């Protein structure tokens, strides 16, 4: 059984307009069928919980829905719309701004850049979305292409 590095970026939105929600769906979906790459949590403490908390969902319910129904992304988003407590355009905008503006700690940034052979000299955008993309691409390369 092969395991997969999630390659949907946290900078991706679905029809509902929520950053990271498609990635959350992909990670939990992979975890529920035993195919999420090692080192990746289905629901982690960072962006995953930011999205779940901001929308007023419960992590256990998100996980259980995906595990029991194996939804497509549109089916998952329909479930989110039905269960989210906070989903106005304002709520979503506020969440998206917090996701886009999140900056990793210095040691995290340094480690990701070092693994990718890049200097930590300010030449790479420091936001977590871009750094996480670099991290995912590196992990994908190591696991699949090397």
Word description of this protein:
The structure is a single chain. The chain has 146 residues and is mainly α. The protein has one domain. The protein has seven helices and no strands. The longest helix is centred in the last third of the chain and has 18 residues. The chain is globular and about 45 Å long.
Helices, strands, pairings?
Elements: H1 21-32, H2 47-55, H3 59-69, H4 73-83, H5 89-100, H6 106-115, H7 128-145
Count of runs of 4 or more consecutive helical residues: 7
- Quaternary structure classification: single chain
What sequence of helices (H) and strands (E) makes up the elements? HHHHHHH
Task: Count the E strands.
Answer: 0
Which parts are unreliable, with pLDDT below 50 for 5 consecutive residues or more?
A: none
Mean pLDDT: 96
In terms of DSSP E residues, the strand content is: under 5%
How would you sum up the global shape?
A: globular
N- to C-terminal distance: 18 Å
- Total domains: 1
Helix content: 55-70%
Radius of gyration: 16 Å
Classification by helices and strands: mainly alpha
Major sheet, described briefly?
Answer: none
């Amino acid at each position: 059984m092969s395991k997969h590095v999630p390659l949907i970026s946290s900078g991706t939105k679905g029809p509902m307009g929520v950053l990271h929600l498609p990635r959350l769906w992909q990670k939990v979906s992979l975890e529920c069928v035993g195919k999420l790459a090692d080192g990746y949590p289905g629901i982690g403490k960072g962006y995953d919980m930011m999205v779940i908390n901001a929308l007023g969902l419960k992590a256990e319910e998100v996980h259980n829905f995906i595990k029991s129904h194996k939804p497509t992304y549109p089916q998952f988003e329909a479930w989110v719309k039905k269960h989210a407590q906070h989903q106005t355009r304002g709520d979503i905008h506020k969440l998206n701004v917090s996701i886009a503006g999140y900056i990793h700690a210095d040691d995290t940034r340094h480690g990701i850049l070092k693994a990718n052979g890049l200097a930590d000299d300010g030449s790479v955008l420091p936001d977590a979305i871009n750094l996480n993309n670099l991290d995912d691409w590196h992990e994908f390369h190591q696991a699949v292409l090397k």
